[in-house]
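SUBJECT: protein chain
CONTENTS: sequence, structure tokens:
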Amino acid sequence: MEGAWALLGIAILLAYTLEAITGFGSVVIALALGALLLPIEHLLPILVPLNICMSGYLSWRYRRLIDRRLLLGTILPGMLLGTVVGYALLPWVDGASLKRGFGVLILWFSGRELWRLYRHAPARSRTPSWVMRLATGAAGICHGLFASGGPLLVYALASSDLNKARLRATLISVWFTLNSLLTLAFLFDGRLLPALPQIAAYLPLLLVGIVLGERLHRRLGERQFRVATYLILLVAGTVLLLPGF
């Protein structure tokens, strides 16, 4: 069991370094890798509070880059409502089937966008506002169920004119808000307090992940940033389809 917790630390370092680069993916990747070692119900009360530590720091540091109009006017209303709905649905839904469908959707989107980048196809037309609201609501439901709404939100924002720095800052501010609410929910349902020793043990890994991720983010050009984002989605979608996850 101690070996499993040590390997989880490696997964956390990798996942949170990637989030520091792109602004999303830490929970879904750490959850996907960690599920090979430990039960998912043991992982979420650890991974979500860790995420608010990282996203809180980065949100404050890059607060001037956050697109507040997009965040407050479009993203947060749909995602907050969706997260509440997803959390309420937890006892009633077939989580395995939802995860498979989620994985297929992520694979389709990331594969398509990587193909477009490979062919140097023109950028997608701007996503209609109703599609954006629908996608953010669905992303919120996925976040309430699995704490993994990032892939669908990235899909919704893929045609936006945000550059890599503003996209990352805006995404990170979303996770800070939503994961703070989920952490409170874990506190009230009794899952947070038993996880505090593991959270404290893994906190130093966040510092390493932030330092590495910040350096790599500065080195990536816009095209490289998009490729890295879609590759992370591709890996996440593939893992969600693995038997036993």
The chain has one domain: 2-240.
